[in-house]
Design brief:
homodimer; Rossmann fold; two-stranded antiparallel ribbon; globular
Chain lengths: 378, 378
């Protein structure tokens, strides 16, 4: 078991990482809060896989535990679902001394987190992320949100939890595709800010699909440490935190263009990171060797992406819908070395279009347009 | 013109107070933000009274200005109305660099504030409160919220604005009843924490209904200074901030019991403050002289309140619905002197019931039960 402390102004909280640690650490975190009751929020899939799991982890402790389930899936990460959660909290007569436990992947963490951020202007929150993606990404840093029909994570808040319990045992029931999707974000943390983490992952690629909990504990710990370090320096995304969006510009385009229902976020980020690496190389920021090493770790994990054909105006329009876009330009995250990302401000979508064409031409097995070949003359 | 600075960890912002100062100070506050555009949120009544007011105040400045109106009234301070605001922000292609100007009373300030707190996890907010109540109360301190069908201000966040412009000129069109309702909260700040402010108000009672802007500037400034001082010491309502709820325990009961549609919040608070003063005297915390002075300032402003008959269990049930209630007891705010409130923890609703009966018996012109006389034997 490893523990990482996230130090933010006015809030320091622990992230506990290990295999089979829920029973030990969830009650401890709740003791520090001393709530009057606990409301666990989960989805129906997890509830089927682990019925009564949270209640059992809290057996013998004084807090009454209620469970609220929502349907499983990103399409339910909406203001409507959140509204039903407010209703059910009120029906339970929840008070400011009710603690919320978010028990699930990123959708649950984001939505239960926003509930805890806004119910009576804020009640205690503990994150129990059950997917690899949530463990290394969304459970660290305090971002919470629901989607709007016109954009992802449009309605949200920053809400730091009282603590995070990352129990690797939940990875045992995680579908392989989701495990791989989470790996992209984990590897991303090495690529953008921790060359040693990248080395460690590169030399342990054989463990990526397995259940070597020592490997996962180390990998998740180091990955969370990178993210926590970035968040500590820039909680509200004024600057540095943007490097966490490495790979996300193209990922958002892919997700929006394919309706968010064909590819997992991590999968889109995987392709997006390869594109950002390609651009870093082409703009002469990154050397050949580093670019090659990144490709050789990422490419074996890629599930090829196919999306409807795009012309230049659709390409630019989709890029500008990114909520980090501002005044017609983008912040594009590039690499100057392995472990060293930087922010390229005021990147024009038009600059990226020919590079995107070249990337497609070079990587037909990674990303394809359906309905005809790509024309960069657009 | 007077300026007060609110100093909070990570945020310091000015409150400008004066007559006819919007044109001067709204653009200045926006300049500090340098937004890409401005979205002003108001209600249809203000829009009719002051068409184009915000746009005109920003004439000659570079920011495009959009206006979003919502229907006027507390009954529209809901998640549904907020949801339409998110939709309209998205339709305008608002970004993180869009600044929100809340132009209205407490309902607008609370709802536009929550919009700014949660749209893309937070965008800049400037408060332009147009009612006396909002000027001395809701625009200072960063509380934002919408109501839930089962309770007021259940869904909300803390969101400190970039600045507040209190233009007293808006009081000219404020109905007398609303002006008086706001006065109760203004006077409250003197009663709980600033005996000099109370003295000033006591010796200027003749100005309460008039347009002596010098008086109002001084009164609003001092009142905001009290509130800002309390908020600075306790932003998130961990302790001290609770004294601002002086008078609010009974006020919430009155509002809930009468369906929030017969009395203005300030009016209910007026009666609630008299009750809290009565309890302070009866429990021997407060002297006769101070209690008498408070009564002599408040009573002439009271609009008598009538509500359906209550028995003891309804009384206790309504008190426990207050969101500050916890584990069957209340935090009741009492006075130990003029200008010195304190928090009485773990107050039992049952203790208050006989005092409530005596208060009713003593004050038949302030508060009445409809449908029979009050029986404290309940």
């Amino acid at each position: 078991m490893k523990t990482l402390t996230v130090n933010l102004p006015g809030a320091a909280y622990p992230i506990h990482i290990g295999h089979d640690i829920l029973e030990q650490h969830l009650p401890r975190l709740l003791e520090a809060v001393s709530p009057e009751r606990v409301v666990a929020i989960t989805n129906d899939t997890l509830h089927r896989l682990y019925p009564g799991r949270i209640a059992r982890a809290l057996e013998g402790h004084p807090w009454p535990v209620e469970l609220l389930t929502v349907p499983d899936g990103e399409q339910f990460k909406t203001l409507d679902t959140l509204s039903t959660l407010y209703d059910r909290m009120m029906a339970l007569a929840a008070t400011r001394k009710t603690a919320v436990v978010a028990f699930g992947g990123g959708v649950i963490g984001d939505m239960a987190g926003l509930l805890a951020a806004t119910f009576m202007r804020g009640i205690p929150l503990i994150q129990v992320p059950t997917t690899l993606l949530a463990q290394v990404d969304s459970s660290v840093g305090g971002k919470t949100a629901v989607n709007h029909p016109r954009g992802k994570n449009i309605i949200g808040a920053f809400k730091q939890p009282e603590g995070v319990v990352i129990d690797l045992a939940f990875l045992e029931t995680l579908p392989g595709r989701e495990l791989r999707a989470g790996l992209f974000e984990l590897i991303k943390h090495g690529i953008i800010r921790d060359a040693e983490l990248f080395d460690f992952l590169e030399s342990n690629q054989a463990q990526f699909g397995g259940r070597n909990w020592e490997f996962w504990e180390e990998a998740v710990f180091r990955s969370c440490r990178v993210k926590a370090g970035v968040v500590e320096k820039d909680e509200k995304e004024a600057g540095l935190r943007a490097i966490l969006n490495f790979g996300h510009t193209l990922a958002h385009l892919i997700e929006t263009h394919t309706g968010y229902d064909q590819y997992l976020h991590g999968e889109a980020v995987g392709v997006g990171m390869l594109f950002a690496t390609f651009v870093s190389r082409r703009m002469d920021h990154l050397g050949d060797d580093a670019a090659g090493r990144i490709r050789s770790v990422l490419e074996p994990l890629i599930h090829p992406v196919a999306m409807p054909r795009l012309d230049v105006s659709a390409f630019e329009g989709l890029l500008m819908h990114d909520k980090k876009a501002s005044a017609g330009t983008l912040r594009f995250i590039l690499l100057k070395a392995l472990g060293e990302a930087f922010i390229r401000e005021k990147t024009e979508p038009a600059e990226l279009w020919p590079l995107f064409g070249d990337f497609l031409a070079q990587s037909p097995n990674l990303l394809q347009m359906k309905g005809g070949s790509f024309k960069s003359s657009g």
